[in-house]
Amino acid sequence: MIYRMSALIIVDIEVTDPVRYEDYKRLASASISAHGGRYLVRGGRSEVLDGDWMPRRLVVLEFDSVEKAKAWRASPEYAEAKKVRESCARSNMIVVEGV
User: Fold this and answer.
1) What pLDDT is stored for residue 36 in this prediction?
2) pTM for this predicted structure
């Protein structure tokens, strides 16, 4: 039996310019779809259960593999969105293998 390992990109975002961030969301959504990714979490309410991590805006994306997630992140389709995000938000982003 062959198991396919999915990948999750997890982003903690502090939005500094909400108006400009709307442009980012539009651009990012299109690039994520183009690379076969999908949103699992997109800024919904979160609650800390343990520890002291206080995420501001949490986004979780799913891709078929780590390679596909990284390809999206490095893609020309995401390049413009990334520039916009960097101008209107501070963020931490990781990729993690799923099961």
Assistant:
1) 96
2) 0.90
Sequential DSSP letters for 20-73? HHHHHHHHHHHHHHHTT-EEEEES------SSS---SEEEEEEESSHHHHHHHH
Can you tell me the distance from the alpha carbon of 1 to that of 76, in angstroms, rounded to the nearest whole number? 35
What would the CATH number be for the domain defined by 16-45+55-97? 3.30.70.100
Does 2 score more than 80 pLDDT? no
Q: Is the pLDDT of residue 14 over 80?
A: yes
Residue 25 and residue 22: Cα distance in Å, rounded?
5
| Both tokens assigned to 61 | 């994306």
